[in-house]
Automatic annotation (TrEMBL):
UniProt-recorded name of the protein: HTH-type transcriptional repressor AseR
Record SMART domains: HTH_ARSR
The keyword Amino-acid biosynthesis belongs to this UniProt entry's keyword annotation: no
GO MF annotation: an example: DNA binding
Coiled-coil residue spans: none
Length: 134
């Protein structure tokens, strides 16, 4: 695939995607774990599912995320950079992630949550799933 040149509008949309703390937290978690489902992100971020889904949709529209459906669940991952601007921006942001205390805490919570019974597991007990959904 040929490298694409970004328009000013594309660049503006991408920078706006990076301008929100929740979206940065999502990008950081996906940078670390490569792919996460919405329920994992809700659990780690401690935010309501509709809010997390809105941020995921924004990041997808900005061209930063891709998704795949598996049963009832959607899994998100970072898109491959489609040009030098996108690649350099992701590289710069990922280097900054290590210095932010909130990102470090998110990473610890994600490690614990992903080691525990997954929220997407069909065999997960109903009580656990109901608690995670609240």
């Amino acid at each position: 695939m040929a490298k694409m040149t970004k328009s000013l509008v594309d660049i503006d949309i991408m920078f706006r995607a990076f301008a929100d703390p929740t979206r940065l937290r999502v990008l950081h978690l996906l940078h670390l774990h490569k792919e996460l489902c919405v329920c994992d992100l809700v659990s780690v971020l401690g935010l309501p599912q509709p809010l997390v889904s809105r941020h995921l949709a924004y990041l997808k529209r900005a061209g930063l995320l891709q998704d795949r459906r598996e049963g009832k669940w959607k899994h998100y991952s970072l898109t491959s950079a489609d040009g030098n601007f996108h690649s350099n921006l992701l590289c710069c942001v990922s280097k900054c992630f290590a210095d932010v205390p909130e990102f470090i805490e998110d990473a610890k919570r994600a490690a614990k949550a992903l080691d525990a019974e997954g929220c997407c597991d069909e065999t997960a007990n109903t009580k656990t799933r109901a608690v995670k959904a609240k």
